[in-house]
Amino acid sequence: MPSRAEPAVRDTAAVALRGVSLAYGRGARAVQALSGIDASFAPGAFVTLVGPSGCGKSTLLRLVAGFAAPTGGTVSTGGSPVRGPGPDRGVVFQQPRLFPWMSVRGNVEFGPRMAGLGKAARRARADELLELVGLGDAAGRRPYELSGGMQQRAAIARALAPDPSILLMDEPFAALDALTRERLQEELRRIWQTTGKTVLFVTHSVDEAVYLGTRIVVLSKRPGRIVLDVPSELPHGADPRTDPGHQTLRETIAAAVREAAA
Ligand SMILES: Nc1ncnc2c1ncn2[C@@H]1O[C@H](COP(=O)(O)OP(=O)(O)OP(=O)(O)O)[C@@H](O)[C@H]1O
């Protein structure tokens, strides 16, 4: 008999977390990493996750990536429950993790190749992305011939290659020197504006969280809970590094992180 129930209303959030908790291990030795996380992020948002060390930022990202399953609650992307990694989500780690035996272009082509994209199409895609991340001239080089910042650009291009709608970034600039880091932050903002991806970005740095985020989420110390979740609206054309509203926001976030760590 056909169901008379109303069709389920599709969750239009890019990422939705409903009552999410995660414990590593079981019994007396279980480590409760996250507890009662509720949030949903709109398509195109740039969400920065900040909080004290060990509060579960990476764990949260791993749940959205599908590398781990929550022990409570649900995680969904684009209205569908996350059941594992998928091409709708690209991941960038702190270390670039490029294949050393492949050229930069080969690394970027890898995902599309696995997805069965033809040679000409995947090459065109790789070259377009390498241009986007400013590595147009380095396509034929091996990862070990690149600086750390260039390697991380290549990792971003590789993550974008399957055209995911969501980009998950786990402290991608933490291992870089200050100048390279600043440059890549600017580049990432430009890439985000150009591509319209939803970005979830984990960082230890309040400055980075405020500079990049259109929404800033602060987690408490373990078990991680959301203690602050604020939008960050920048007046058109303003520079977040000098905008007075952002200075105030930076102080608010820094205070929340200090309190969360106490
Ligand atoms: N595989 C694991 N087994 C047991 N405990 C784990 C495991 N992975 C992480 N943890 C613990 O879960 C908690 C959250 O870890 P997670 O790496 O998500 O935190 P984080 O906020 O990203 O930390 P950091 O800022 O230091 O990178 C920590 O207490 C950590 O020790």
Summary tags:
Rossmann fold; 2 domains; globular; 6-stranded mixed sheet; alpha/beta; 4-stranded antiparallel sheet; binds adenosine-5'-triphosphate; disordered N terminus; 262 residues
Give a verbal description of the structure.
- Pfam families: ABC_tran (PF00005).
- This is ABC transporter ATP-binding protein.
- InterPro entries: AAA+_ATPase (IPR003593), ABC_transporter-like_ATP-bd (IPR003439), ABC_transporter-like_CS (IPR017871), ABC_transporter_ATP-bind (IPR050166), P-loop_NTPase (IPR027417).
- The protein has 262 residues and is an alpha/beta fold.
- The protein folds into two domains: 15-88 and 164-261, 3-Layer(aba) Sandwich (Rossmann fold), CATH 3.40.50; 100-163, no CATH class.
- Helix content is 34%, strand content 23%.
- It is built from seven helices and ten strands.
- Strands 6-7-8-3-9-10 form a six-stranded mixed sheet, sandwiched between helices.
- Helix 3 crosses helix 4 (148-160) and helix 6 (206-212) crosses helix 7.
- The site of adenosine-5'-triphosphate has 14 residues, from strand 2 and helix 1.
